[in-house]
């Protein structure tokens, strides 16, 4: 049978190899098929294609959770049909959400966690949007009360922020003012942040666990700098902490760090339950310091689903089973369990980073001492005569299934290319040993080749 070819020269139909056993016709790729098929056949078609995806345990680029207990898998599967927004139909799921909100608020040292206000979200991006909206709405309400203009709000943040903050500024018409990287500082500096503030500043974003290098930003020092600025100018500038990764790490393995609601200037915090909260994607959390910090205009009363339900989220329908998964982890692990999991991840990160840093071609930038994330650069002297770059290393590691990204650092230091590893619960010390072996093989492979030599197709590791 002749296949039709679409404009991109790709077949427009699927022809499974097992077609004779369960399928007697081709299956269109880009339009709904005319006929139904057996469930097992549809399953097999999709199952076979998904084999082309990478193996999640070898994906050291993602911060997202890739493993949960079997019992958690069962709970999530049993609750696939639960819509988190329909709290009248699923009152116990709604109750579990409220328990999680109070637990997270207590974890982050809210003044009155039992009466905390916040919400689950589809992830940290939505949670960041809500935290940003809270800052803008409070600033706008204050400016209106003072009879001042509300036309030019701005937000202070480091150039290392996740892209969701740029989206927030664009979507909600807020001017982003970035503290650019400088020298060996790739995160927000308190003194540099204060220089960008004026009366139209809605707040400052601090990050607990930078995506670029895994560092915590100095939230307490930022708070102190803003305290001094308020004494000097009278302007009270709030902090939102983006704890997407570190919000579920620091309380357990670095409890001495003051970054949360222990600092009165911190008005809201977000974190990803699906990162170091150890839940599959997608679930996030945003908590406000106290009810007064959540503008009433951001809360909606939904009645058409039955009852009078409060809704704070930007998304409406979203899976309720992820909230159940979060609650399972809170009960299953407790503080002791989270501490053991994250401490083990950090131990693996520090062990692997020290060994990578000892390799001749590389210099460590961070070692996993904050969140279990570290990155390195090419040694400057070595790079002068090297026949390869970190991009080549990343590409070569893919041949063994490893995803270890290479990328430029933030604005003003984009000349510096680094590689990064995110250590999660399912990445053991044994797997770290295997990665190191493969990394050494990559180095040997490139060092055996003359500079600028063409790559031979199919040429790979020698075992």
Short synopsis of the structure:
By secondary structure, this protein is an alpha/beta fold. The protein contains 13 helices and 15 strands.
Number of helical elements: 13
Largest sheet: 7 strands, mixed
Task: Please state roughly what percent of the residues sit in beta strands, choosing from under 5%, 5-15%, 15-25%, 25-35%, 35-45% or over 45%.
Answer: 5-15%
Number of strands: 15
Oligomerization category of the chains in this entry: single chain
Account of the 3D structure:
Helices cover 36% and strands 15% of the residues. It is an alpha/beta fold and 463 residues long. It folds into three domains: 13-53, no CATH class; 70-332, Type I PLP-dependent aspartate aminotransferase-like (Major domain) (Aspartate Aminotransferase, domain 2, 3-Layer(aba) Sandwich); 335-447, Aspartate Aminotransferase, domain 1 (Alpha-Beta Complex), CATH 3.90.1150.160. The chain has a seven-stranded mixed beta sheet with strand order 3-9-8-7-6-4-5, with helices on both faces. A four-stranded antiparallel beta sheet has the order 12-13-15-14. Strands 1-2 form a two-stranded antiparallel sheet. Mean pLDDT is 90; it is low at 1-5 and 456-463.
């Amino acid at each position: 049978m002749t296949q039709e070819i679409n404009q991109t020269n790709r077949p427009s139909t699927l022809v499974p190899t097992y077609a004779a056993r369960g399928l007697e016709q081709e299956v269109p790729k880009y339009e709904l098929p005319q006929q139904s098929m057996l469930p097992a056949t549809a399953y097999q078609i999709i199952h076979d294609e998904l084999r082309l995806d990478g193996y999640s345990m070898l994906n050291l680029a993602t911060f997202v959770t890739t493993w949960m207990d079997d019992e958690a898998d069962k709970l999530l599967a049993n609750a696939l049909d639960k819509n988190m927004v329909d709290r009248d139909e699923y009152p116990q799921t709604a109750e579990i959400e409220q328990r999680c909100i109070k637990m997270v608020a207590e974890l982050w040292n809210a003044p009155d966690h039992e009466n905390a206000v916040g919400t689950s979200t589809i992830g940290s991006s939505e949670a960041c949007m809500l935290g940003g909206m809270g800052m803008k709405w409070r600033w706008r309400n204050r400016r209106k009360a003072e009879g001042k203009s509300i036309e030019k709000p701005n937000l202070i943040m480091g150039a290392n922020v996740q892209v969701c903050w740029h989206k927030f500024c664009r979507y909600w018409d807020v001017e982003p003012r970035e503290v650019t990287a400088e020298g060996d500082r790739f995160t927000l500096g308190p003194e540099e942040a204060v220089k960008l503030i004026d009366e139209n500043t809605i707040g400052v974003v601090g990050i607990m666990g930078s995506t670029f290098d895994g560092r915590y930003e100095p939230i307490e020092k930022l708070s102190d700098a803003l305290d001094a600025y308020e004494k000097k100018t009278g302007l009270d500038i709030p902090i939102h902490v983006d704890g997407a990764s570190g919000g579920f790490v620091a309380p357990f393995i670095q409890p001495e760090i003051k970054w949360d609601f222990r600092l009165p200037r911190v008005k809201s915090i977000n974190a990803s339950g699906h990162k170091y909260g150890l839940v599959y994607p997608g679930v996030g959390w945003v908590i406000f310091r106290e009810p007064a910090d959540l503008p009433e205009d951001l809360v909606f009363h939904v009645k058409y689903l039955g009852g009078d339900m409060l809704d704070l989220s930007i998304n409406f329908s979203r899976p309720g089973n992820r909230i159940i998964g979060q609650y399972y982890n809170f009960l299953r692990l407790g503080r002791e369990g989270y501490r053991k999991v994250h401490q083990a991840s950090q131990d693996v990160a520090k062990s692997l980073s020290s060994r990578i840093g000892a390799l001749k071609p590389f210099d460590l930038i961070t070692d996993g001492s904050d969140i279990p994330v570290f990155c390195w650069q090419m040694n400057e002297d070595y790079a002068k005569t090297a026949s390869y770059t970190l991009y080549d290393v990343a590409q070569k590691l893919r041949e063994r299934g490893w995803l270890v990204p290479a990328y430029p650092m933030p604005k003003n230091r984009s000349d510096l290319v680094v590689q990064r590893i995110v250590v999660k619960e399912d990445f053991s010390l044994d797997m770290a040993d295997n990665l190191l072996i493969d990394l050494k093989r990559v180095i040997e492979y490139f060092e055996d080749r003359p500079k600028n030599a063409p790559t031979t197709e199919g040429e790979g590791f020698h075992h």
